[in-house]
Amino acid sequence: YAMLLSLIFLIVLVAAVVGFVFRHEIKTNFESNLNLALRDYNVTADQHSEAVDTIQRTLHCCGVQNYSDWEKTEYFTKRGIPQSCCKNQDDCSEEDLKDLSKAKLKVFVDGCFFLVTSTMESKMSVVAGISFGIACFQLVGIILACCLSQYITNNQYEMV
């Protein structure tokens, strides 16, 4: 049992170290994937488009760096900036969303990349605290399992 707990403890420890060491690569991959999702964005309900809409609605952001990122997409040439960027859904017309200067007043201007990464970084302390607590319980379990094993081997009972 102690060996199994030790193995789980080591796996969690390695995962935490790898996540910490490669956090910049994770950010870079997220940014490039968000750019790809914007480029391939369409009206049909595919997973990437739904994810972009959810992020933009939830975090009140638009585009990767800012709302003007949509200008480089094929979707913008057809329909303008998506409705998920609108501050007020009732006040956003398609004509306004096709003109960047008008859209600036009606959509969220901040980009999603900074908001997502800052939200993740602000929650990291909570995740680290919970992980540290779980690791402490695992270490206590390992120590108690070793003590129990030692107690059993020192007090051999006669087989009847």
From TrEMBL:
It comes from the Eukaryota. GO terms for cellular component: plasma membrane. Its main location: membrane. Residues 1-19 form the signal peptide. SUPFAM superfamilies: Tetraspanin. May be involved in cell proliferation and cell motility. PANTHER family: TETRASPANIN, TETRASPANIN-6. This is Tetraspanin-7. It comes from Sagittarius serpentarius (Secretary bird). The lineage of its organism: Eukaryota, Metazoa, Chordata, Craniata, Vertebrata.
